[in-house]
Amino acid sequence: MFKLALFFVIIFCSQLLEAQKLLKTEMALWGNAWVPIDRTEFEYDDKNRVVAQFESTWNQADNSYSKYRNKQTEYSNNGTSILEITKEFDAISGSWKNALKKESLFSKSGLLLESTIMRFDSTWIWDSTDKLYYDSRNNLIKDSSTWYNQNITNNSISMNYYFYNSNDSLVTEYSLMEWRIGTKLDTFDRRTYDYYPTLKKNYMWLSTYSQGGWLPLTTTLLEYNENGRLELVEEKGGHYSGGDIRKLYSYNKNNFLEKIIYQNWNDSLSVWVNHRRDLYYYDSSVNIENSIKNNHLALFPNPVNNVLNVKLNDAANGNWSLYSSQGLELNSGVFYNQTELISIDVDYLVPGTYYFKIEEEERQVKTLSFIKL
To answer: How many helices (H) and strands (E) does the chain have?
Structure first.
C-alpha cells in the first residue's frame, strides 16, 4: 500500500549511492519555448550527504545564471540533528547575508521529531516550530506548526491529524488553523484517500467545512508506473477551483526522477498546455547496472514491506549498515564469507528511501538503495 510519504515525497536522488548523486536541478517556464528561471546545484561530503545547495536565477540580459541564495548543512556526530543555514546575496554590498536558520531533530530510528526556523534581522529571531508525533507503528498521527504572525502580533498555530486503516495506509487527514492560540477555529479542511493498487492508482479528495457541512474542493488522481514510481498527478479544480492542473513524471534508465512537466487545462482549446518544467541531473560517472552486476549485491523485494533480503555472492568478511535518507545509521551487523541470504526486519521503518551498505575487509564499499512501503 502507498503510505503518507509516497503521496507527498518523491524520492529523486540517493545521498549514499555515489553513482546517482543529484548534481543540479533546472526550472524553466513555457512561452513560445522553454525559458530558464532557476537552477539549484548540490555539493556532498565524504559520506555522500548534501552539505551545500546553491540557487541561481537566470539573467536574460547576458544569458547566464547568477547565484542569489545558498544553504549550508551540518550534521551532528550522532546523526540526530541537522542544522541548515540559508544566506542570500546582497547586490548592494556584494556579499552574502544571513537569512534563515533551520534545526531539525530526529529520533535514533530516523523519524523527524521537530524543526525550528529562525530568521535573521540584525540578530536571529524565532520564526516557527514544527512538531511531529507518531504511533507505535511509526505512522505519523499528528503534526503541529506554530509561527509568529506579524499581522496580529501573536502566535498562530495549525495542526494536521492523520488516520490509517488496518494496512497502515492513510485514509483521512484533517487540517485546522487558529490565527491566534486560544481563539476560535479559522479553517477546517479534510483529505480522504482511496487506493486501487491493482490499477496502480490512488485518489485524494479535498473538502472544507463550511456552514455545517463538507464542501468539495478538489479531486486528485495519482498514477504509478510498473516500478511503483509516481508518474501522474492530476488535480481537478486545482488551487481551489482555479483550474485543472497536472504533473507528469519521467525517469531515467536507473529509475531516478529525470523530469517533471507541469500543465494547465485550457478550456477554450480543450487541451493540456505546458506551464513549467523541472529537470534533474545526476553524476553518471558510474553505471548503476554494471555496478550492481560487478558487485554481486542484490536486495529484494524492492519496494519492501516487512523483511528485506540481501544476497551477497562471493563476499568476504565484512560489515553491513542500514541508513536513512538523512544519512543516519539505523542498523548494522557483520557477515563471514556470506553466500546465503541475510534477512533484515524493516517493518519498523517509516515509508521512504533507505540505503544498504556493505564494507568488506578489502575495503570495497558497495551501496544500494531500496524503498520502504
So the answer is: 3, 25
Sheet of 341-345, strands arranged across: 297-300, 307-312, 341-345
Q: Which comes out higher in pLDDT, residue 300 or 290?
A: 300
What one-character DSSP code corresponds to residue 146? Answer: E
Pairing mode of beta strands 271-282, 22-30:
antiparallel
SS3 state of residue 70 = strand
Kindly state whether residues 30 and 173 are assigned to the same domain: yes
Residues 248, 242 contacting (CB under 8 angstroms): no
Residues 27 and 67 in one domain: yes
Residue 327: which of 12, 75, 144, 65 has the closest Cα?
75
Amino acid, res. 67: K
The CATH number covering residue 295 comes to 2.60.40.1930
- With a CB cutoff of 8 Å and minimum separation 6, the contacts of 325 are 11, 15, 352, 353, 354, 355
Are 177 and 156 in contact by the 8 Å Cβ rule? The answer is: yes
The number of residues making up the chain comes to 373
- Residues whose CB falls within 8 Å of the CB of residue 309, separated by 6 or more in sequence, listed in order: 299, 300, 301, 341, 342, 343, 344
Asked if 103 contacts 128 with a C-beta cutoff of 8 angstroms, the reply is no
SS3 of residue 152 by DSSP: coil
pTM: 0.72
Q: How confident is the model at residue 237 (pLDDT cuts 50, 70, 90)?
A: confident
**Gap between the Cα atoms of 147 and 23, Å rounded:** 33
CA distances from residue 323 to 80, 91, 357 in whole angstroms, order as listed: 12, 40, 8
Which string of DSSP letters, residue by residue, matches 205-249? EEEEEETTEEEEEEEEEEEE-TTS-EEEEEEEEHHHHTEEEEEEE
Burial pattern 275-308, b for ≥16 Cβ within 10 A else e, equals: ebbbbbebeeeeebeebbeebebebeebbbeeeb
- pLDDT tens across 115-144, in order? 999 999 999 999 999 999 988 877 889 999
**Structural domain count of the chain:** 2
Helix (H, G, I), strand (E, B) or coil at 317: coil
Same domain, 201 and 306: no
pLDDT value of position 6: 31
Q: Are 274 and 312 members of one domain?
A: no
Closest to 353 (Cα-Cα) out of 304, 312, 306, 320? 304
